[in-house]
Amino acid sequence: MSNTDTIVEVSNLDVTFQMDRGQSHVVRDVNLDVARNETLGIIGESGSGKSMLASSFLNAVIDPGVSTGKVMYHPEDGAPVSVLELSDSELDRFRWEEVAMVFQGAMSSFNPVTKIRTQFRETLQDHGRDIPAGMDRAHELLESVYLDPDRILDSYAHELSGGMKQRALIALSLLLEPDLLVLDEPTAALDLLMQRSIVTLLDELQTEYDLTLVFITHDLPLLTTLADRIAVMYAFNLTEIGTTDELLYNASHPYTRALLDATPDLNVPVDEMSIIKGSKPDPVDRISGCSYSPRCPIADDRCRSEEPPMMTVRDAHESACFYYDDAPDAVPISAAPDERPSSGRTTATEGRDN
Ligand SMILES: Nc1ncnc2c1ncn2[C@@H]1O[C@H](COP(=O)(O)OP(=O)(O)OP(=O)(O)O)[C@@H](O)[C@H]1O
């Protein structure tokens, strides 16, 4: 497919690990398109496979994990790239210049014994870039994340606060002008004000640098302020995907509805709220039928024997539930719809020195 509006096309993606007790299937037959310039949020419980899915966008699943299926990257100009088929040297270039990833632990992403300046320079050098022009861009990027460029470049990572490090890392990730930025829980270790400030910042950077963002989090409220679309992950696969408004007002999978119900206060991350009853799925021993059926209040025999495919609920909204039509009535959400969307966005400069 050469759809110019699609930047990444994931088809039949599996990620597996060979374990002593059998094969662990931590991403299972995922199909997903990311549109150019959108912000796609991926949400789900801890261990549902979000990081493995996102790492596959860069063919960066940790060893000895194996990604199979197809991940096609469509640059704005030029031929599509089959990411899982790239050689190591092709991947080294692809990873910073086309797709960059920001992880939760900004602390460990910077080398503790060299100044931040060295790390910006080395990134430019490793990719054969012009150093003076690249360092000019570094200054510009650091300013656009509301940091004082010279002060930051002359610091060691340990001299910076968590919020400053995370913003410096976002600047570094944009140094080689990637089109897609994958952010894996980039705000998890930060306080609430700094989290909101980074989200607003990402919104600004997206417009300024024409980026596509894939944002992974447990934090549904945070996503509602940033994402154009939300993909919900459960048991190593997607269960629902739609525009943020569709997911907030017309959630059609019982799991999404349970997540919304567990988030009455949109200022508190999901995992701190009441947990959905029942045990988490096992990536080695997969049950038959719908993975959510043991926890689902409306599951019947069909759900326990047959796996529901993704079904179209309406335009740009799909749900992997046979009863997507019944789910809204059958699985009520206690907060009224008009209490659900997040409110009170902060500005990127708030908390800037934290
Ligand atoms: N090195 C590994 N070997 C085998 N299984 C792993 C390994 N790392 C992670 N897993 C398993 O892969 C599954 C998916 O993990 P993943 O990190 O993608 O989940 P996640 O949804 O991103 O979770 P979190 O939100 O906690 O980061 C989990 O069941 C996890 O136990």
Q: What is the overall pLDDT average?
A: 87
Q: Detail the poorly predicted runs.
A: 341-354
Query: What is the CATH architecture term of the largest domain?
Result: 3-Layer(aba) Sandwich
Distinct small-molecule ligands in the complex: adenosine-5'-triphosphate
Order of helices and strands: EEEHEEHEHHHHHEHEHEEHHHEEH
Find the structural class using helix and strand composition. Answer: alpha/beta
CATH topology of the largest domain: Rossmann fold
For the termini, the CA-CA separation is 45 Å
The number of helical elements comes to: 13
Look at the structure and give the CATH class of the largest domain: Alpha Beta
The number of strands is: 12
Characterise this structure:
The protein is of the alpha/beta class and 354 residues long. It folds into two domains: 1-98 and 178-354, P-loop containing nucleotide triphosphate hydrolases (Rossmann fold, 3-Layer(aba) Sandwich), CATH 3.40.50.300; 111-176, no CATH class. Helix content is 31%, strand content 22%. The chain has 13 helices and twelve strands. Helix 5 crosses helix 7 (162-173). The longest helix is centred in the middle third of the chain and has 18 residues, at 192-209. The chain is globular and about 65 Å long. The N and C termini lie far apart (45 Å). The model is unreliable at 341-354 (pLDDT under 50). Residues 17, 24, 26, 44, 46-52, 62, 218, 283 line the site of adenosine-5'-triphosphate. It is a peripheral membrane protein. It is found in: Cell membrane. One of its GO terms (molecular function) is ATP binding. Residues 10-260 form the ABC transporter domain.
